[in-house]
Write a structure and sequence with these properties.
The chain is mainly alpha-helical. The protein is built from five helices and four strands. The strands form two sheets. A two-stranded antiparallel sheet has the order 1-2. A two-stranded antiparallel ribbon has the order 3-4. The radius of gyration is 15 Å and the shape is globular. The N and C termini lie far apart (about 35 Å). The mean pLDDT is about 90.
């Protein structure tokens, strides 16, 4: 069991490294990436990754650009309220 967990962790680390290199090589904020690839490249913890994937499945989105992901991290006014919050935090 420990060996399988270690192999899975190594595999994910290699995947993350390969995806990051591919994203850097593309050097394009507008390029659309498969959600799972982009989320894996970011290296989110499991619960955050799951909730974000659930959100995108619910919205019917299968691809996202780096710009869209970055925009989700920036504060924006909350409709009907008098403060700002990151759209990602609302997810």
């Amino acid at each position: 069991m420990i060996e399988r967990q270690d192999a899975a962790k190594r595999s994910l680390t290699e995947r993350r490294t390969r995806l990051r290199e591919e994203i850097r090589a593309a050097d394009d904020l507008e390029r659309m990436w498969p959600l799972e690839d982009l989320i894996d490249a970011v290296g989110l913890i499991v619960v955050t990754k799951k909730r974000l994937m659930d959100h995108f499945v619910a919205t019917g989105k299968r691809q996202i650009s780096l710009r869209e992901l970055m925009d989700m991290c920036l504060d924006a006014p909350v409709e009907g309220l008098d403060f700002m919050m990151s759209p990602l935090l609302r997810v």
